[in-house]
Amino acid sequence: MSEVRNLFPRERDDLQLDKIDDTKFNPSIRHLFGEITQMYLKVRNNSEAQFSETDCSTLLLKIDSALQYVWETLHTGQWKDVDPEWRKLYSYVSLFKALLCLELGKDEDSGLVNAIAACDMGLIMGEPILDGLLSNIADSLNEKLWKLSETKRAIQENQKEEEDSNECYPQMNKENFVETVHVPSIEKFLLDIMDKKPVVITGAMDFWPAMSESRWSVDYVRKVAGYRTVPVEIGSKYTDDAWSQSLTTVNEFIDNYILTSNATAGYLAQYQLFQQIPQLKKDILVPDYCYLGTCDDIQVNAWFGPRGTISPLHYDPDHNFLSQVVGSKYIRLYSEEVTASLYPHEQHLLFNTSQVDVEHPDLEKFPLFSSTPYLETILESGSMLYIPPRMWHYVRSLSTSFSDCLRVECQWYGIPNSGPFRLARLGQIREQ
Ligand SMILES: O=C(O)CCC(=O)C(=O)O
Ligand SMILES: [Fe+2]
To answer: Locate the JmjC domain: which residues (predicted)?
Structure first.
């Protein structure tokens, strides 16, 4: 375990605390942070004689109250307005907590699991610090736990048997099919496709490591990320009242929602998993089409879930390359011009989402919907769907599915789905 412990900064200077502007904090939290930092350095330098187990527990209490205080601040007002200094503070305190968890856990699995959870909370809620240190620590610990569990693990079957799923296939009309193009040239993409129409692009993912020998099996995801904490959406769609979000480990998510038929859907949705677990990013190759815009900010979001997840009809501001790695999805597309016939929500946080349940529309309430033209496709593993900015899309998974969505020119248009996770979307973050 000492190699993981060695990843934690040892000296005050190594912590680069000068990069954090603590004048943004009130005196009590500044004082608490100073105290915690000092204690962390003592623990890190292994001054066992001076630092007993009781001291460690006291430190943990201080750390937890600091985290709680910062959490409150992070959840006040809109996510986009949160001062990055508070997020950095959250990351530092999470780093200190991770070391404490290892110390208190005495190298038992539970200590490692708690340490990973601390790092992940820092990654989800915080700002990157110290060159991705939280990510590196969590990655090393995950690998350790995976190796430890290998000896205990019974041979597990990889995939749940998918029951005969014909009835979940939609009735489709050939005339509405989205055009399919096999690896279009850059010129063709630029002149005929970009900003103009959606197309299914085949062949562009053939060399993705993620696609080789079905690399992205459930077992692989467990290996790379099993013990990592991620936000998941619970409930079939984010417009439902019963919809909520929770934080869970990838292993728990797989056990409870992917490998078990569950009455409530769980969806690891629109999440920047690759920022949190950069190792997974090596498995995908961003296609050249993504570099054609004026902006090179490419965001990769993961969508991992069982059969039956639904993303209600909505639009996003970016060019989107929805790339299907595992399984298949039914997708319906409507152009921006027909927006009025799609009855967008009036609530300001949902203005980019239609009120219509696409496959079971209430035509008395939404009469224009039935005659509104659309395109549709079943996106299969190995294909990517180009969705132009502001084109409406509805997505339902037809099997266990893993998609990566590559977004280009992500800009803040006030569209509320760019929060730490989609908590921000429904205004569940308290307004001041
Ligand atoms: O795959 C899904 O469930 C939704 C995908 C989506 O909305 C997007 O990539 O923008
Ligand atoms: Fe979308």
So the answer is: 275-429
Total structural domains within the chain:
2
Could you say which of 88, 120, 152 is where a domain stops? 152
Q: Compute the distance from residue 311 Cα to the ligand 1 centre, in Å.
A: 6
Rounded CA separation 250/231 (Å)? 9
Please check whether residues 190 and 335 belong to one and the same domain.
yes
Ligand 2 (ion): residues with CB under 5 Å are 316
What mean pLDDT is reported for the chain?
86
Q: Is the CB of 324 under 6 A from ligand 1?
A: no
> Hey, what are 27's tokens?
């005196």
Distance from the CA of 124 to the center of ligand 2, in angstroms?
21
370 falls within a domain: yes
How remote is the CA of residue 33 from the centroid of ligand 2, in Å? 39
pTM over 0.90: no
CATH number of the CATH domain containing 334: 2.60.120.650
> How large is the ipTM?
0.99
